[in-house]
Design brief:
It contains 28 helices and 16 strands. It is of the alpha/beta class. Strands 8, 9, 10, 11, 12, 13, 14, 15 and 16 form a 9-stranded mixed sheet that branches. Strands 4-5-3-6-7 form a 5-stranded mixed sheet, with helices on both faces. A two-stranded antiparallel sheet has the order 1-2. The longest helix is centred in the first third of the chain and has 35 residues.
């Protein structure tokens, strides 16, 4: 009867084994092994699988014999208590305390000695019978608990307590759902352990598998923690790690590497090559980082921004320089990334929010000639202060109407005069003065405030274009840069309709520029673009690239001209740049579109683009962006 009962209980183990194998497959497919906590979870699942297999083998004593029983039970105990140990490590990893334990000899010793004692007690049981032994009942060998087996369970409870304490102590690091899942997993495991002790039924590992389902489903949401392109930690994973450091009060040194010419390079690559380019830069950074500092993670925060963490300030400056040099190497596409980099610390910022505002908008240029910016040395720099307070600045700008518009004249090659303007948003902050888009645009798009800024720019431009002052300038159009986020917004279009009716604007005189042609023809934005055309406004493509997919999409887009950034030329080999520019312009002309070259800084750039066929040119070589009054005086002097 006892043997039959054991065989019946083995069905629980078989069910648990099937569940854990399925969870292992899910975790591997989801690439949970890319994160520290994910690797711990996979270790727990593997230990569970091996413990279950050994447990199943132990219910067939006649088949495996005495030696087989000893081996199966020894391994079962080792793997079972490995689950408790690894689960405690898993919780500590989620909290962020595991790195502290690894770096402290005393804590590392206190944490690992108990599991070592368990292993010694179990492995020596064939000789000592202290943990367990087998009694021959004449038919088969019966498992019997030893006098000191309670010590193994007591130590297991200690690891449970460590995990529960960490979970309760740092509950603010988790969502309510995650806390419920992790706590429920503990309750389930304790319940299973109690049944195992009281009735010796083989249900413990089945219940453990149910607990793991909860964790995989709620805690290890790996799709948000791994960047799908690079396979590195995502911006969310980076944010989580920094938040942990603030909660724990740990100092973390952070290197932010921003590929400054990232958008320019991508604009001349086809869509299928973009991911390859990103991966080429990521590989250069990650390979060098792993060789120099293998303990911690590399994160990709999107749009050419990489983040590296140093939890110990051991030669972080020297490592940062080597990684920055590695990221500048020319890749297989022939482009050499232009790198902006800084090293900072969580201690340099009063709060997590302040730090993340800085990290998400890092575009800081240091004038000292250093290899990278040390943020603590730049605290008094105005540009740094703007970046650190950009949330408040943009909010106040919208509330108090601090958004202004500058206008850059656009020169017509054919008419030999300035014929139109590009309207450019600025923030006129009472404390910091005029703030350029490079400092507030990225943050405004992420926060959604760009829609309100675009609406304010629209109204100011409409006021100007319908004024007598504008009519006296004898210009044809005004181009307005509009965020794709605004083009998705019903609120933006309702505002556009109101402004059009209020100021009686001729829509033929307004050209909206959008940066991303590919996104424009996504399902949502294509409808938004159509609304622009239906209202009578024109649409132009800014920062055009020559990739195949761009060309295919562009050829179907109802736009009258495209704007090519002169910065593209600077990313190309000087020997081939003229040929590429000329062929690009010929292609655009063959599709019956006109070309504007922007960001022209020198006479040589102007001459090259004009000779290659640009219809219009603009940039600081002709005129910097001007206020309305400055513009009027400039055109009176230069358009006569």
């Amino acid at each position: 009867m006892i043997l039959e009962s054991m065989v019946m209980n083995a069905y629980y183990d078989i069910a648990g084994l099937v569940i854990m194998i399925a969870l292992f497959v899910v975790c591997m497919y989801s690439k949970n092994y890319k994160t520290k906590s994910g690797r711990m979870l996979i270790g727990i699942i593997l230990s569970g699988i091996l413990a279950t297999i050994c447990d199943i083998a132990g219910v067939y004593p006649k088949t495996i014999g005495l030696y087989g029983l000893w081996i199966a039970n020894i391994l079962y105990f080792i793997f079972k208590f490995a689950i408790l140990y690894l689960y405690a490590v898993y919780i500590l990893t989620l909290v962020g305390l595991m790195d502290l334990i690894r770096n402290s000899k005393i804590w590392r010793l206190l944490f690992t000695v108990p599991i070592i004692l368990i292993i010694i007690l179990i492995v020596t049981s064939p000789a000592t019978h202290l943990a367990f032994y087998f009694v021959d009942n004449g038919e088969y060998y019966v498992y019997t608990r030893g006098n000191l087996v309670f010590i193994t369970y007591l130590i297991g409870v200690v690891y449970l307590v460590v995990g529960i304490y960490s979970l309760v102590r740092y509950k603010k690091l988790f969502t309510i759902t995650e806390i419920i899942s992790l706590a429920t997993a503990y309750v389930i495991c304790i319940f299973g352990l109690a049944i195992q002790l009281a009735y010796n039924d083989l249900i413990e590992l089945f219940i453990t598998s149910l607990a793991l389902i909860l964790i995989v489903a709620t805690v290890e949401k790996n799709d948000s923690l791994i960047d799908p392109v690079t396979g590195l930690g995502s911006y969310q994973a980076f944010s989580n790690e920094v938040y942990r450091s603030y909660v724990l009060g740990n100092k973390v040194d952070i290197v932010i590497i921003n590929i400054a010419n990232f958008d320019s390079v991508l604009s001349i690559l086809s869509i299928d090559k973009e991911n390859e380019y990103v991966n080429s830069v990521a590989t250069a950074i990650n390979t060098k980082y792993r060789a120099l500092n293998p303990t911690y993670e590399v994160y990709y925060a999107d749009r050419g921004v990489f983040v590296l963490l140093f939890k110990e300030n051991k030669a972080s400056h020297d490592i940062a320089i080597k990684i920055i040099d590695a990221s500048k190497l020319k890749n297989q596409f022939g482009f050499r990334p232009t790198v902006k980099a800084c090293i900072t610390s969580t201690k340099a910022f009063q709060s997590f929010d302040k730090f993340m505002q800085f990290a998400s908008s890092f575009n800081y240029e240091d004038k000292s000639g250093e290899r990278f910016i040390i943020v603590s040395n730049a605290m008094n720099d105005t540009k740094y202060q703007i970046m650190s307070n950009i949330d408040k600045i943009t909010k106040d700008a919208i509330t108090n109407d601090h958004v202004t518009v500058s206008y850059q004249p656009v020169y017509s090659v054919k008419k030999q005069r300035f014929t139109c303007l590009e309207a450019l948003a600025r923030i006129d902050d009472p404390k910091y003065g005029i703030i350029l888009p490079e400092l507030f645009l990225s943050f405004s798009e992420r926060s959604g405030r760009i829609v309100e800024i675009d609406k304010m720019v629209i109204e100011k431009v409409f006021q100007f274009i319908t004024s007598d002052e504008f009519k006296a300038l004898k210009l044809s159009d005004i181009e307005i840069n509009v965020s794709n986020l605004s083009l998705k917004s019903d609120d933006f279009f309702n505002h556009l309709k109101r402004m059009k009716a209020m100021y009686h604007v001729n829509p033929a005189n307004i050209i909206f520029e959008t940066n991303d042609l590919i996104k424009l023809y996504g399902e949502t934005l294509s409808k938004s673009a159509q609304r622009v055309f239906d209202m009578g406004f024109e649409l132009a493509i800014d920062n055009y690239g020559i990739g195949y997919y761009n060309i295919k999409t562009f050829s179907r887009a109802p736009v009258s001209f495209v704007k090519v950034n002169s910065d593209l030329v600077k990313s190309l080999d000087p020997k081939t740049s003229e040929s590429i520019v000329r062929n690009t312009y010929n292609l655009i002309h063959n599709l019956n579109r006109e070309v504007t070259c922007s960001c022209v800084e020198t006479e040589d750039e102007a001459r090259l683009n004009i000779e290659c066929g640009s219809n219009y040119v603009q940039g600081n070589y002709y005129s910097k962006p001007l206020t309305k009054d400055e513009l009027i005086d400039f055109l009176k002097d230069n358009n006569e």
